[in-house]
Write a sequence for this structure.
């Protein structure tokens, strides 16, 4: 199964086996008097939450054990090579929904060892055959290559059905002539895309048998008769004008697609007769990846409409268990936490027998304890779980890659060293671990490169300024807007810096930004890094002691620190110390010290004293304050790097500096609390700009 499926056992090992009636890892059939029609389960989470991994685990567990079908609604051909190009195929005789129905029914029709023969789709086969191939008389311009023999057969069939002749023998003969002319000409000429040929042939064989052998008022044709009360005649006579609805406007096509899906569901129910129910045969399982996409949203609308169109009944019905993945906010009000979903197993999941039970489940993030469990086979450094948690942002897939990378560093009978792991991420050991982590989250190369550059920006204006400097001939507004649109809460865990006005930074998913900044820093020379930070800084007002504090000045100093200009930052903070209120002062420290580290490690060390350049250093007491602020800034800045774990020496410098500053103010509850809380928070792995400030304020 893999530890990337953290926190999903409630769904994998309890709910889905209960609904299907079959254990995931064993052979036991799960009998339940309350087990009824299967639900539609939407598994919701952000990027890297493990949604696709969950579907893959279900596929591996139940493949060849029960009727199973899977499709990726965001992949070419729904993830099947033979159907590439069909997912977007919208013609008078086909749509993505009909192509998906061909695929699902084909997969469910495969023989399963312990289940017996595959499922049969009588109603759906008749409906798909007519929709895919029937060309209403008088419409010829849409199929110029249609064989003349087929057109003549269609005209004869149309005439005999239009007259409602009682000559069943004649009618069957004309119907056979149409089918005989139709099947040899199937490739493209009759509206069936070439990739569907094998599936269409199976559908056509089933439909041919039904159309020629059954009476018009029995079986599958009777079902279509009952579903189309707006038309007259028997089932076949009503089906042919139904094609006009499929060819009609979007709302008519959606209704027609819903009827085809309803036929699909009714066929599944018919396959589970008394014998299979008596023997507790496991239910079918449909796995649909990327239901959040436009294609997926369309499928879901049609699916739910199909459920509504099916008649309510008090008898036992069988519906498939549908598990679908959706990119979205797992904490939204309409989403049930996966940990709270097990109670759903205590009641029938299907609502009334005809309607769906849509269960929206949010996947949990992976936490420190779970990461420790993932690392348990390794003799790893104490703070490695913290680093994995910070860089993964709770994403199981990212955490898994980081843990696997750590495991590969352990020599035979050796011990993993933190410096070796950090070297994989900061570029000193070579390799592409950070890029591999990011490609998992941002698979589009242009988007990855764009966000890497823009990750250093604190706001949209700065991002546009930076893009214009790099690509003066490009439209910076459009490029930055496109990047910002991708950074929406359905995909990412957005956490802007508190009290930053306007909101900051540009990329507010903390883990994503950390990885992007690592890639940016390792990909730029020291000179290019400096140019990038100076360009970002150029749009903000430089600090002016004569002016009141301003967010622009804070952002200017944030980029100044990223350039290594710590003395400028220290002079500004000394000037503002105990002048604007220490709540605001601590918030400013938090924002400035969240700056990314420079290329030059020497700039992090204690610099030559520049007390003479500081206008606030007017005496021995002031010099003590200046030196304390200098220690505080440099220690916090070092601790703010995403690859830095809690370091006792740096934390002690923070504690000492805050203690010194507290001694030089008359009274400050905020500074007293910071002296107490910041060292504790730093030891727990908290970094600027998230260090707590008294009264609940954060920068």
């Amino acid at each position: 199964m893999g530890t990337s499926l953290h926190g999903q056992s409630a769904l994998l090992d309890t709910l889905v086996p209960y609904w299907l009636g079959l254990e995931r890892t064993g052979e036991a059939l799960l009998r339940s008097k309350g087990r009824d029609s299967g639900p539609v389960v939407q598994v919701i989470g952000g990027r890297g939450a493990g949604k696709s991994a969950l579907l893959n685990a279900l596929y591996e567990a139940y493949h060849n054990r029960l009727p199973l079908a899977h499709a990726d609604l965001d992949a070419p051909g729904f993830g099947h090579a033979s159907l590439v190009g069909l997912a977007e195929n919208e013609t008078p005789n086909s749509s993505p929904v009909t192509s998906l129905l061909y695929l699902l029914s084909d997969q469910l029709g495969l023989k399963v060892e312990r289940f017996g023969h595959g499922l049969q789709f009588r109603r759906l086969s008749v409906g798909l055959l007519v929709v895919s191939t029937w060309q209403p008389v008088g419409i010829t311009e849409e199929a110029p290559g249609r064989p003349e023999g087929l057109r003549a057969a269609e005209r004869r069939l149309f005439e005999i059905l239009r007259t409602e002749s009682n000559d069943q023998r004649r009618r069957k003969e004309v119907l056979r002539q149409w089918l005989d002319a139709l099947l040899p000409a199937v490739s493209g000429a009759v509206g069936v895309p070439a990739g569907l040929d094998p599936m269409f042939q199976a559908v056509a064989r089933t439909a041919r048998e039904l159309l020629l052998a059954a009476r018009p008022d029995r079986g599958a044709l009777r079902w279509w008769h009952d579903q189309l009360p707006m038309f007259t005649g028997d089932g076949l006579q009503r089906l042919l004008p139904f094609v006009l609805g499929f060819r009609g406007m979007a709302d008519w096509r959606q209704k027609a697609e819903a009827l085809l899906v309803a036929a699909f569901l009714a066929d599944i129910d018919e396959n589970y007769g008394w014998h299979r129910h008596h023997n507790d045969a496991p239910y079918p399982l449909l796995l649909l990846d990327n239901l959040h996409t436009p294609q997926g949203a369309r499928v879901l609308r049609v699916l739910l409409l199909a459920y509504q169109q099916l008649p309510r009944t008090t008898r036992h019905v069988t519906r498939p268990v549908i598990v679908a993945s959706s990119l979205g906010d797992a904490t939204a009000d309409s989403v049930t936490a996966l940990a709270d979903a097990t109670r759903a197993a205590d009641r029938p999941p299907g609502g009334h027998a005809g309607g769906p039970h849509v269960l929206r489940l949010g996947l949990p993030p992976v936490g420190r304890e779970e990461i420790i469990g993932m690392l348990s086979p390794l003799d790893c450094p104490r703070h490695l779980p913290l680093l994995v948690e910070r860089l993964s942002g709770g994403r199981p897939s990212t955490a898994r890659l980081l843990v696997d990378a750590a495991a590969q560093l352990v020599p035979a009978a050796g011990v993993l060293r933190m410096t070796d792991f950090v070297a994989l991420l900061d570029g000193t050991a070579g390799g592409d671990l950070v890029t591999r982590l990011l490609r998992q989250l941002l698979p589009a190369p242009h988007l990855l490169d764009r966000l890497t550059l823009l990750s250093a920006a604190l706001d949209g204006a700065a991002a546009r300024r930076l893009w214009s400097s790099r690509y003066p001939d490009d439209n910076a507004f459009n490029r930055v807007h496109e990047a910002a649109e991708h950074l929406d809460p359905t995909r990412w865990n957005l956490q802007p810096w508190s009290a930053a006005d306007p909101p900051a930074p540009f990329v507010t998913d903390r883990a994503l930004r950390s990885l992007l900044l690592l890639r940016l820093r390792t990909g730029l020379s020291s000179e290019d890094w400096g140019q990038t930070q100076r360009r970002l800084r150029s749009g903000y007002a430089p600090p002016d002691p004569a002016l009141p504090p301003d967010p622009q000045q804070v952002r200017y100093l944030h980029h100044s620190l990223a350039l290594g200009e710590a003395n400028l930052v220290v002079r500004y903070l000394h000037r503002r110390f105990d002048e604007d209120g220490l709540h605001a002062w601590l918030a400013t420290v938090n924002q400035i010290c969240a700056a990314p580290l420079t290329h030059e490690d020497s700039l992090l060390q204690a610099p030559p004293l520049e007390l003479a350049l500081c206008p606030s250093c007017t005496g021995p007491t002031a010099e003590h304050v200046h030196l304390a602020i200098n220690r505080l800034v440099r220690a916090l800045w070092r601790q703010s790097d995403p690859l830095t774990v809690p370091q006792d020496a740096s934390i002690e410098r923070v504690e000492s500096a805050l203690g010194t500053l507290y001694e030089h103010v008359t009274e400050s509850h905020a500074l007293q609390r910071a002296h107490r809380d910041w060292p504790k928070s730093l030891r727990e792995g908290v970094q600027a700009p998230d260090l707590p400030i008294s009264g609940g304020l954060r920068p």
Q: What stands out?
A: The beta strands are 40-45, 68-72, 285-289, 321-327, 336-337, 358-362.
